[in-house]
Amino acid sequence: MIEKINLNNILFLDIETVPEEENFNSLDEEMKSLWDLKTQYQRKDDFTPEEFYERAGIWAEFGKIICISVGYFTIKGDVRNFRVTSFFGEEKKILKDFNNLLNNHFNQPQHLLCGHNAKEFDIPFIARRMIINQIAIPDKLNLFGKKPWEIAHLDTLELWKFGDYKHFTSLKLLTKILGVPSPKGDIDGSQVAHVYYVEKDIDRIITYCEKDTIAVAQIFLRLRREDLLIDDEIIHV
After folding, report:
1. How many CB atoms lie within 10 A of CB 218?
2. pTM score, two decimals?
3. Locate the Predicted 3'-5' exonuclease PolB-like domain: which residues (predicted)?
4. Cβ(97)–Cβ(13) under 8 Å?
C-alpha cells in the first residue's frame, strides 16, 4: 500500500538525455554501422540512419545524460517541504554526484527511488552510463540477483497501469487527468538535443527536468489522495 510509505524515504527523479555526439557524421565508421543495425527495426524504410540520429538520446549506447533532477520531501510535524536539486555539466561528474547522493543519503533498506517510466528508462539508462563511464553502480541501482520484491524502485507509470502491462500513459497526460499543474514549460523532450547542442541553454533543460521531477511527486501524492504541493512548499536548492 503506497499510503503506508513514508514520503521522507522516497527520492523522486527524472533525467534528460541527448545523442552522445551532436550529429551522425561525428561518429566513427564502426559506430555509424552499429547505429544503422541498432535502429533498423525502428527506422524501417522511413528514415536513413543519419536522419534518425536525432533520436539517439533514448539509447544508452548512443546517448548521454546531461541532467539528473531529484526531489525529496522533508516533513516535520505539519510543515511539508519538497526540495529539488539538479546535477548537470560533464556526464561523468553528473553520475558521480548522483552516485554520492545515493550512497550517502538514500542507501538504507527503507529508501526508494521513484520516477515516471523510470524502471524502463531512467534507472537502466543511468546504470548503463555508469558502466560506460567506469563508475561503480550503487546498491539501489544494482539489480543483479535481486528478487522483484527486493528492488527498491517505484514507478508512477506502473502504479497507474494496475497490472495492465500494455498500457502506456505519458507524464503530461497523467498530470492533466489527475488535475496536477502541467510540468511542461517552453520545451518538450523532442527539443532537448536542439536546446543543448544548438542553443547551448542548459538552464532551460534544468528547469524542464525539475518540473518533471515535481510532477512525479505530485502524481504520487494524488495516488495517495493527499493534497498537492503548493509553490511555497517547493524549494530549489
Report:
1. 24
2. 0.95
3. 62-224
4. no
